[in-house]
Amino acid sequence: MAVISNVSSASLAEELGLETGDEIISINGNQIKDILDYRYETSDLYFELELKKKNGKIEYLKVERNYNEYLGIEFENIIFDDLMLCNNDCVFCFVKQQPDEIRKSLKLKDDDYRFSFLQGSFITLSNLKERDYEKIYKYHISPLYISVHTTNPDLRIKMMKNPKTGNIKKQLDKLLNHNIQFHAQIVLCPGINDGEELDKSINDLIKYFPSILSLGIVPVGLTKYRKSLYPLKKYNKKNARIVLKQINKWQNKIKITQGKNYIYASDEFYFLAEQSFPKYKDYNDFPQIENGIGLSKLTWYKFSKLKNSLPQKIKTNKYIIITGKLGEQVLKPMINILNKIIGLYIDILPVENYYYGKEVNVTGLLTGRDIKNVLENIEIPTNVILPGISLNKNNKFLDDLELNDLKNNFKKNNFIVCNDIDELVEVVIDE
User: Fold this and answer.
1) Is 409 inside a domain boundary?
2) Rounded Cα gap, residues 271 and 46, in angstroms
3) What is the tens place of the pLDDT at every residue in 154-207?
4) Close Cβ partners of 323 (under 8 Å, ≥ 6 residues apart)
5) For the whole model, what pTM was predicted?
């Protein structure tokens, strides 16, 4: 439902009498299923609203707006009809590797092209109907974020356990023919879609340049909840180096043949291989940073810019930074500099992920319980810096433990949430 969550003061909507809790049923007689429909239908200078007031009354409003004048309303959600769910059964699916007690929203297998465009989530294209493609073309919904995994039709069907997934190249061709650009990802599984299969996939995908904006290659994530699931292995130092060598070959090739690189390996591959990251400029504005690609390099780069403006030695309180195992590797060189140059007292406390299993080492998947367990071993009151990436907008961890639960359990500690290196530096040098 297109329920209004906010009406801006002195806006056209306020002038028309729209209120929080009202629901827009249609615009110009057309049902609006999402924010994209809403934007399209209200782009004219004249349109008609069918409105259901919060008291249940139906109203019809004729709206006349000036150029660059908008209604001034916000909605509870960006999708007003049913979320398009994934109809695949991927052998590497992370949602299927969740514990039973996880909150329901984390078990939803989102595969909605509208979320892909609006929020950058990856989709498989396997559930799209012709009317969906028509809408993509009509509104020019571009770019999309597409989970490819492999361009081998038989292998894609095998990996995703859905006979509809084998026509990925035909689907990409349709997007190409309508000038729809896309970012692609490959979740790499040892012995399945790497090696020669990875070469084939990359070779097929680079033919879509310049419609393909980026290709991110990430290792499969495995939790301890894999009972009765397809047997998969994790990448180690040796085979991570093989993957990076293979990717580097393709990066060099397309730089020469197509003039730029747009193939990227995830940060985890570089940490596993114990190899240096590419240069900052080689990430080309970090198109897949939300996919764990380039965040480490960006963090180091930001810190290098901050370093020149750091104060001289200052008096400060003690700080403890909570992070995951990979986060420790990112933060350690910067924290060493802060401690040595300006005399800070900052300790990094990497948290073992017992909730999902020790194989999961990214900070974004830390849970409140695991953080709570490590904090119980800290006797001296201190300032605790928590990673914002581990909390949702309601300040809840993945296991539904809340930030306030930690504060109530450890009242002697001062908890501070930081979302990036800029915020962290600002906190620790604040006198």
Assistant:
1) yes
2) 56
3) 999 999 999 999 999 999 999 999 999 999 999 999 999 999 999 999 999 999
4) 330, 331, 348, 349, 350, 351, 363, 366, 387
5) 0.93
